[in-house]
Fold these 2 entries.
Entry 1:
Amino acid sequence: MTRPNLFILVSWMCQVTSWFIPAAQAPDFSVVVPGWKAFRLAACGVLPCEGIEFQGIIYAVLATISVITTLFFLLYSPWVVLRGTRTVQKSSAWFAGAAFVFNSHWIVIFRAQGALLMIGFFLWWLSFLLLAIGLLRLPEIKKRELLPSRA
């Protein structure tokens, strides 16, 4: 397996794993939130949830953008890797890198609220960086595969 494909494979494994392990712990330290539930809570910025309100519109916007980045990862990245052109792959790599940087806002927000981010969050967050690295290097590999070999 080539190195970029390994980056992409590990990024997908991190993303999937992060959905099933603890992502955050509430400030009272009695409630642990798995990744799938963290995604659902973040989606409350767009899809109403009973008993959930964001402290301000900015938090709802940030959460909604995080949901969009996750949906990009889950729904779009397999297509980009398997069928995307070099241009689409490079553009998507930059999008994944931007998503990694953007999603670091959760560290600031959770620290300010006294909550604890757990391994599920960090695997989810890392998956964007690994995908970006893999996609940036993927076109180089495909390009080399197209060149005729010298025997």
Entry 2:
Amino acid sequence: MSDLTIPSPFQEQDGTPVFKEAWQAEVLAIAQSLIDNGAISGMDWAKALGFALRSVQHDEGRDNIAGYYDAVLLALEAVVQADCGVDMGTLDETRQAWVTAYETTPHGQPVHLNLPR
């Protein structure tokens, strides 16, 4: 038996993964949904994630769980751009719209996203 402590989110509680933040589960669920619906291939996802993880490992201080999820997000953005035809400008506009919506929503109220058209 090993004394190795498995870092969260790879631990399980009651048979389900434990995530530090909801977005961590959501980004993985989005990737899986895109694969399941044929928008991206599992092979493209694996390649993009591997590339992103290697880049994170080379950055001092990012070879940890936070760095892992940064890599997951980078990989998702890469495959959405490459396989779904979403350009970086659209991703940036959507990201900024989320930031604006989040920052201007009163505490306890639902966040409403208004995308630029």
